[in-house]
Amino acid sequence: MKAAVLVFPGSNCDRDMAVALRKVGADVTMVWHKDAEIGDVDLVAVPGGFSFGDYLRCGAIAANSPVSQALKRHVERGGYALGVCNGFQVLTETGLLPGALMRNAALKFVCKSTPLTVATSDSGFTGGYTAGATITLPVAHHDGNYTAEDAVLDQLRDQDRIAFTYADNFNGSRNAIAGVLSENRRVLGMMPHPERAVDAATGNTDGLALFRGLVQQLADA
Ligand SMILES: NC(=O)CC[C@H](N)C(=O)O
């Protein structure tokens, strides 16, 4: 699998993402946000962090970086994209995923490990999990409160595009949504951090199945 990890001023999970991808054998290139081309890759990962200091709205300025136009072209070509935390915020701000991430219900930054339900295993990202399984992943955000209009929520449910839900909906997300898929199921945005859960040395490997599943999916394609 060839992967690119985008890097914005203020990204802080870009290297963790690269480590996780390399762990499952990916050939990883880091791409600075001013680059207008990403190159021919299978996956573009948009990492977590505080791009542009979270000014304006989380992810809003990054969504207007030159590299985000290249990201859109990659997705239009049918490429895979994974946005984690700030990356999920960037994907909603670019319009590549529906909805928005608002301030957490308690208006506090939350940093902890939290249980999630795998809502669908029908995607390249979630195929390595069993639907309905509970996994635990770290979260670290202040704007993770997912919202969308009722019609969008209905569509996400009817099209089986909710990837993960919070078992304990600590941030107030509508329908406890922690991650959503695009219509072609090749773009995933999620607030929890699978890339921080890929090594037993750090106490959790529940994120590994996501990266392994993607490699498997690409190998089978
Ligand atoms: N870890 C992250 O990517 C955090 C995203 C964003 N800065 C927030 O706090 O909501």
From TrEMBL:
Kindly give the Pfam families that the UniProt entry links to this protein: GATase_5
Q: Where in the cell is it found?
A: Cytoplasm
Concerning SMART domains, the annotation shows:
GATase_5
Alphabetical list of SUPFAM superfamilies matching this protein:
Class I glutamine amidotransferase-like
Reaction(s) the record says it catalyses: N(2)-formyl-N(1)-(5-phospho-beta-D-ribosyl)glycinamide + L-glutamine + ATP + H2O = 2-formamido-N(1)-(5-O-phospho-beta-D-ribosyl)acetamidine + L-glutamate + ADP + phosphate + H(+); L-glutamine + H2O = L-glutamate + NH4(+)
Q: Among its keywords, does the record have Nucleotide-binding?
A: yes
Keywords for this protein? ATP-binding, Cytoplasm, Glutamine amidotransferase, Hydrolase, Ligase, Nucleotide-binding, Purine biosynthesis
What does the record give as its pathway?
Purine metabolism; IMP biosynthesis via de novo pathway; 5-amino-1-(5-phospho-D-ribosyl)imidazole from N(2)-formyl-N(1)-(5-phospho-D-ribosyl)glycinamide: step 1/2
Any one GO MF term held by the record is:
ATP binding
Tell me the InterPro entries matching this sequence.
Answer: Class_I_gatase-like (IPR029062), PRibForGlyAmidine_synth_PurQ (IPR010075)
Highest taxon, organism lineage: Bacteria
**Which GO cellular component terms are attached?**
cytoplasm
* A GO biological-process term: 'de novo' IMP biosynthetic process
Enzyme Commission no: 6.3.5.3, 3.5.1.2
Q: Which HAMAP family match?
A: PurQ (MF_00421)
Subunit: Part of the FGAM synthase complex composed of 1 PurL, 1 PurQ and 2 PurS subunits.
Tell me, what does this protein do in biology?
Part of the phosphoribosylformylglycinamidine synthase complex involved in the purines biosynthetic pathway. Catalyzes the ATP-dependent conversion of formylglycinamide ribonucleotide (FGAR) and glutamine to yield formylglycinamidine ribonucleotide (FGAM) and glutamate. The FGAM synthase complex is composed of three subunits. PurQ produces an ammonia molecule by converting glutamine to glutamate. PurL transfers the ammonia molecule to FGAR to form FGAM in an ATP-dependent manner.
Q: What is this protein called?
A: Phosphoribosylformylglycinamidine synthase subunit PurQ
Annotated organism of origin = Loktanella salsilacus
